[in-house]
Amino acid sequence: MRFEHIDTTIQTLGEAKIPSPLLQPANGECGAYFVDDDERILLHVNEKQVAQLKADGIPAPAFESAGPRRKIYFDPSKLRCALVTCGGLCPGLNDIIRSVVLELHHRYGVRHICGIRHGLQGFIPKYGHSTMDLSPETVTNILDSGGSILGSSRGDQDIEEVVDSLERMHIGILFMIGGDGTLAAASKIADAIHSRGLKISVIGIPKTIDNDVFLVARSFGFDTAVDIATQAISGAHNEAEAYPNGIGLIKLMGRESGFLAATAALARQDVNFVLIPEVPFDLDGPNGFLENLEKRLTHRGHAVVVVAEGAGQEFFEGRKKMHDASGNVKLYDIGLLIKSKIVAHFKERGISVSLKYIDPSYIIRSLPANSNDHVFCSFLGRDAVHAGMSGKTKLVVSHWNNHFVHVPMDQVITQRKKVDPDGKLWATVLEATGQSSLKNPAPKKA
Ligand SMILES: Nc1ncnc2c1ncn2[C@@H]1O[C@H](COP(=O)(O)OP(=O)(O)O)[C@@H](O)[C@H]1O
Ligand SMILES: O=P(O)(O)OC[C@H]1O[C@](O)(COP(=O)(O)O)[C@@H](O)[C@@H]1O
Ligand SMILES: [Mg+2]
């Protein structure tokens, strides 16, 4: 993929003039380091691509590095901050809340940190959700809890009312932790703030169990999700192996992107078929999934199938399209459809099978983060604070080419990140599973 069209410019509220409290010896003793705005991370690391851009006279795009700045914009003694978590749950939400609060409190000396309850609803008086005072005492021991201590919600809220609420609370930095929907809302909030001439920074921390946020190489909670998914695969494999013609079928989250299904299949290589939204497949016909499943049972006596929830939605064509409160398309249950198709197929062929269907979706996204994600969230949360304190706004803190960076909010919401059917991840899934194309040849035209 080429990224030369990406505008990497980061907006600021004004000049950062206040020396950072991290410069104080007491704070710097344990190695305060600083990052300058001109420290940048190239989007492309492929030498040929960079050379091509150079030959075309196009400057190679680069993201601003995340991290503490020497000068900050907000006076910590007067600053009020707010945090909100929106959309679906994801392992690590509490880690992010904790690291933001501890960094603000201990390193910058910010004393007014407010948790907004139940997503965007928390800004709107009619819902009556009270706010939560966030301090080291309230967040120190939340790492072992899944979910979000602030709660969440879906559903559109009036952006002007959200900004009214920020004004009423005298908020200087708003940290919005959420997925593509939340970041779209955050971008509108930042625009409304700007048009009112307010000085409020909006910092996004991308959250997605589907790992589908554009320009974010890895999102927090994904590593944990893969870990937990492998347990489901392991269970399905044990069940499948134990019985004659055993089939373990697991459905994993992944609305439009099959990263979780593909990566979990590589993490636990007992999987024989992976079905993801990006790669179309047929159920029936000589190359179809059911025929291939039967072949696998004939040769090996058992099979494990992983299906991402967004796969095969074309099999529901003609049915009514429904949406959730946030406007996301409500998916039909591909796991249950495949289950019923498998049962019908083998019944028709007079073959007895033992089919076990496992759907661990909500277990995966609501559990606490694993160690890797604890570490990752700690970096992300603290870098979000550094970005906000320096007066930057309308950005998300991202991980790109092994570095933490600032990405303009409007860029990440332009599209979703998807598994490339011609890329390394999917090629390796095919190698590891031995799965061939599950598409029948197109019928010849008369
Ligand atoms: N385009 C949009 N403009 C404004 N608000 C949005 C937009 N898309 C989603 N939202 C709001 O952002 C919040 C979270 O969105 P949702 O899609 O549920 O989760 P996620 O942020 O995880 O994608 C919801 O309250 C939703 O109404
Ligand atoms: O049952 P819910 O809350 O609508 O969530 C289902 C969806 O939430 C997700 O886990 C994440 O979606 P979001 O990015 O919108 O939070 C999807 O994989 C899934 O389709
Ligand atoms: Mg979303």
TrEMBL record:
- Major location category of this protein: cytoplasm
SUPFAM superfamilies in alphabetical order = Phosphofructokinase (SSF53784)
So where does substrate get bound?
Answer: 208-210, 253-255, 309, 362-365
Q: Which reaction does it catalyse?
A: beta-D-fructose 6-phosphate + diphosphate = beta-D-fructose 1,6-bisphosphate + phosphate + H(+); beta-D-fructose 6-phosphate + ATP = beta-D-fructose 1,6-bisphosphate + ADP + H(+)
Q: Which residues belong to any copy of the Phosphofructokinase domain?
A: 81-387
Site for Important for substrate specificity, residues: 181
Q: How does it assemble?
A: Homodimer.
Xref: NCBIfam families = PRK06830.1
Please name the HAMAP family in this protein's record. Phosphofructokinase_II_X
User: What protein family is recorded?
Assistant: Belongs to the phosphofructokinase type A (PFKA) family. PPi-dependent PFK group II subfamily. Atypical ATP-dependent clade 'X' sub-subfamily.
The identity of this protein, by name, is: ATP-dependent 6-phosphofructokinase
Upper lineage: Bacteria, Pseudomonadati, Thermodesulfobacteriota, Desulfobacteria, Desulfobacterales
- Gene name, Swiss-Prot/TrEMBL: pfkA
